[in-house]
# Entry
Amino acid sequence: MQELAKYRNATDQVITGFRYILQAIFANVDYSDREKLIDQLTPQLTEIVRQHRARVYEEAKIMLRASAKRQGVNDPYEPTISGYSEQSVRTVLRKHLRGTPQESAQAVANALAQHVEAAGRQTIIRAVEDGVEAANPEDEQHLEHTRLTPEEFREHTGGLRPVFSDDDERNTPAGRQPKTWARVLSGAENCGFCVMLASRGPVYSDAEAAGRGEASDRDYAAGINTYHTNCDCLVVPIYDYANWPGRDQWLAAERVYNEVTSQKWSESYNDPRLREKWKEKGVDRKGISAGYGPSGVTAPGQYKRGSTNNVVNAMDRYLRSHDISELHGVKNVRAA
# Structure
């Protein structure tokens, strides 16, 4: 787990420095004209976010290479850094630049810190999804929005065909792509929502595999690729289902899910991608279905909104009375 610990701590150091810079900027701004302030801050903050995203991106590549090597891949595919627009900063400022100066500064810093950390998450997710051509057209909108399209991927890799979302092996001239990715808890900001998603294990490869749906700030329903403010969940690439950093903690989280809900994740027999998982458990099953999600799914791959929120609430109640340190793939220094 050393690679995850190094990445978590390095990323936290980048974000701490980022927050310090923003604190200094907001201590010297004039709040009297909100629109003028937004226009002034947008280009300045955009450049600062981009600089810190670049640092997190480099740390994510180090973690990607270390994780791949641990799983038997010496030449992993490494995505380029995802782009970042001024509009992202402007949207944050319009949403959070209200209330007292102190409240505004804190809210903006929290939101933009997530944008900084997203550079690392996007790197790992894109390692899986770059070049993916959704098996189901309606899943296209749920793939990582900064990924390379099949056309861009072919150009980037010298004409390699696109990967379909149900392919098991992904080989590129630059090395193998991960099969899927998983969420791993790191201890500082883990809520019931985080635990629920971490308990799903190495299922995240596209919207169909991980469950379609949308989420908002007020509703967690089916937000498979959602990260709440200050969330410190790690995204880990999976090359080998039987050997990846965080696997033991996933199994522990899965046991908690089963205990809290008195039900298991929805299971089926038609997905070859995770047959290793069941084989490792000694279960004669081919894999899990697109409907692998909280009990009460309304259709394959789509979560029932009320069911999902009930699971999150039950998880939150559990966390308030139980020690979940065994679920943490790495100890975040912020949790000390």
About this structure: The CA atoms of residues 119 and 182 lie 16 Å apart. DSSP finds ten helices and six strands in the chain. The radius of gyration is 20 Å. Residues 34-70 form the longest helix (37 residues).
